[in-house]
TrEMBL record:
It is an enzyme of class 5 (isomerase). GO terms for molecular function: peptidyl-prolyl cis-trans isomerase activity. PPIases accelerate the folding of proteins. It catalyzes the cis-trans isomerization of proline imidic peptide bonds in oligopeptides. It comes from Actinophytocola glycyrrhizae. This is Peptidylprolyl isomerase.
Length: 252
């Protein structure tokens, strides 16, 4: 989340979600420490992109990221909304089932279904747990396992426009059960995503593409209750004590 920005400044905002790597890495996705605050112009552009949710064939325009390397699994077929409605993750901590929202984020769902079908997530670790006040999420989807990795291509931003405002009106609330994409700023969404286990306050700069069912939230609650392992960014931000390895991911 840039969270989940894929790189670094959780303390600065107290909420960034992507990774813990310096933002010089253009392919990294934000991390809790990195939530760069988008300018008004950037936010407006992102919202304009997200409006409608009616992407049709050829409109996603998936393309290589700024790393200059070829996408490790190629580019997703840009054929319009997919039929899959769920993304099931078999993990070392228990099953996690995501109800996909293709109406809200059609390009993101296309990408996630494609990556699951290519086995991209298999064997990857959920590398970051955040337990701070206002930001309680588990971040996954990084093949590098440190917040810097991605699929080698960029997914169009489909930022939410319908989340409730935070108490002070400066951000929005990502409700418990939300599943959203991490990033390193506008135009950098890749494969990293975060699972919200308690209402979290963030800028509306992270694409929401699904929700967790109650059984999945129970699994996530257990992981969160065990806390953060020593040696992370802070006692409230780092690798989870309970390892969460995605053994397989299947869309249906």
């Amino acid at each position: 989340m840039n969270i989940l920005r894929t790189s670094a400044v959780v303390a600065a905002i107290g909420l960034t979600l992507a990774g813990c790597v310096a933002r010089e890495n253009p392919s990294s996705q934000r991390g809790d420490d990195d939530f760069p605050t988008a300018t008004a112009e950037e936010t407006t552009s992102a919202e304009d992109t997200a409006e409608g949710g009616t992407t049709t064939e050829g409109e996603c325009g998936f393309g290589p990221d700024q790393s200059g390397s070829e996408p490790s699994v190629g580019l997703p077929p840009d054929e319009g909304p997919v039929d899959a409605t769920t993304l099931s993750l078999t993990t070392s901590a228990g099953p996690l089932t995501i109800q996909l929202d293709a109406e809200r984020a059609p390009c993101t769902v296309q990408s996630m279904v494609f990556l699951a079908g290519e086995g991209f997530f298999d064997g990857t670790n959920c590398h970051r747990l955040t337990t701070s006040e206002g930001l309680r999420v588990l971040q996954c989807g990084d093949p590098a396992g440190n917040g810097s990795g991605g699929p080698g291509y960029v997914v169009p931003d489909e930022f939410p426009t319908d989340l409730p405002p935070s108490a002070d009106g400066s951000s929005v609330t990502y409700p418990r059960g939300t599943v959203a994409m991490a990033n390193a700023g506008p135009g950098t969404t890749g494969s990293q995503f975060f699972l919200v286990y308690a209402d979290s306050t963030l800028p509306p700069e992270y694409t929401v593409f699904g929700t967790l069912d109650e059984a999945s939230l129970a699994t996530l609650d257990q992981v969160a209750a065990a806390g953060v392992a020593p040696g992370g960014n802070s006692p409230q931000d780092g690798a989870p004590v309970t390892p969460v390895t995605i053994e397989s991911a299947e869309a249906a």
